[in-house]
Specification:
Layout lengths: L8 E5 L4 H13 L5 E5 L3 H10 L10 E4 L3 E4 H12 L14 H19 L18
Parallel strand pairs: 1-2
Antiparallel strand pairs: 1-3, 3-4
Length: about 140
């Protein structure tokens, strides 16, 4: 059984991707209601979660939003759901829900496929600062 924080949504991300790292930093900065916790897909807990929910990450190159006991989302649906929970002006992004998921995922996949070339890649996953350590599982 997974030991996850209660009442938190888990964001699984590529821990060596600079774009993903910047996205995590952005989410943390705008997570005023303390909704999210984070784990890299490369971490032991990240691997346990994807196995638990039945996602083959060798076939899905995506950020994953996992709401324990409720649902999981990936690609554009994950991004839009994260924006929804951040609130404020970011809820404006919900207008993109009118775009068919298939088309939105084509755009998402194009960015995901090129992210290392455009934004770079780290040698290893980020180590959170002591101030941010509580945000990571």
């Amino acid at each position: 059984m997974l030991n996850l924080p209660e009442n938190k949504k888990i964001v699984l991300f590529d821990g060596v991707c600079n774009l993903c790292d910047n996205a995590v930093q952005f989410i943390i900065k705008h997570d005023k209601k303390d909704v999210f916790r984070f784990a890299s897909l490369q971490s032991e807990i990240g691997q346990e979660i994807v196995k638990h929910i039945g996602i083959d990450i060798s076939k899905i190159d995506s950020i994953i939003l996992y709401e324990p006991g409720v649902a999981y989302y990936y690609k554009s649906e994950a991004a839009l759901n994260i924006a929804k929970y951040l609130g404020g002006t970011l809820t404006v992004l919900s207008v993109f829900r009118v775009i068919p998921v298939g088309f939105a995922n084509v755009v998402y996949d194009y960015i995901a496929k090129n992210r290392y070339r455009w934004y770079g890649k780290k040698e290893s996953c980020m180590i959170p600062t002591p101030e941010l350590k509580s945000k990571f599982i």
